[in-house]
Specification:
2 copies of one chain form a homodimer.
Chain A (H helix, E strand, L loop, with lengths): L3 E5 L5 H14 L10 H8 L7 E7 L2 E13 L3 E11 L8 H15 L4 E7 L3 H9 L3 E2 L3 E7 H9 L6
Parallel strand pairs in A: 4-5
Antiparallel strand pairs in A: 1-2, 2-3, 3-4
Helix pairs in contact in A: 1-2
Chain lengths: ~160, ~160
Amino acid sequence: MPIVNIRAAVAADVPLILQLIRGLAAYERAPQEVIISEEQLLQDGFGDRPLYECLIGEVDGQPVGMALFFPIYSTWKGASIHLEDLFVMPSARGLGVGKALLKQVAAIARERSCARLQWDVLDWNQPAIDFYHSLGAKFLDEWRIMRLTGEALTTLATGVVHAG
Amino acid sequence: MPIVNIRAAVAADVPLILQLIRGLAAYERAPQEVIISEEQLLQDGFGDRPLYECLIGEVDGQPVGMALFFPIYSTWKGASIHLEDLFVMPSARGLGVGKALLKQVAAIARERSCARLQWDVLDWNQPAIDFYHSLGAKFLDEWRIMRLTGEALTTLATGVVHAG
């Protein structure tokens, strides 16, 4: 039986992390959206004030997946964790790597007294939704995500504010 | 004309911040969900490694609202900001405080080279949705939020993992 192992990512994993980010983006039908570089990932994740943390999932010593997450904050419940990416290479599916990664993130959330572990899922990604539901995760049915980016963000940041 | 001013929150604002959190939770029809304490907010926001940042909106020198936010990370675009709470007391609406708060968060996002400013909105909160749309914010139509909490989180964190 293949041996699944979960370990913390180190700086030398950055090329692998970017490969997995690209693999997930392709699965999510948005490969062109990945503009992040290895240099940026290294700086953002492995400097003095990391913006994210990452776990690597291995099968028989070979890296095949990752969970990338960071702290968030609930003004109702306090410290929480957001899981940004959970991905296992297609060739290594069905061995429990994804669940082992998520379990480790859940354990970290508990260690840090986090009330919530949450993430976003594509509404058409039924295999993922079924998997998450099987673990007891729930949709936040009433909530929707909004985003300000590009020109609209710049305009708001730099424009004159009128009352109303 | 009333003078609107935005300033960074300080530790002495914690009672006000909790009052505004409760005001927003009541508006969101979930006042019983707020279990956070002043002590926790103080520790989490004003220690060595703050889990959130907060801006206070004032009208004629009186605090009437806040924007509470923290850094998040996009594996596609890099550093970003999540706006957790934006709230203005009902008595101070219509003076542009909410927009001034959001503008300041947007300016901070730009200063920090963030690609995205995002937040969650209740699907029935049409006045907020209209306001956000007027600023150029867009819904992430395909994405839904999932959460693991309470017993399900503990079970995943501490249980035995089976493959598959």
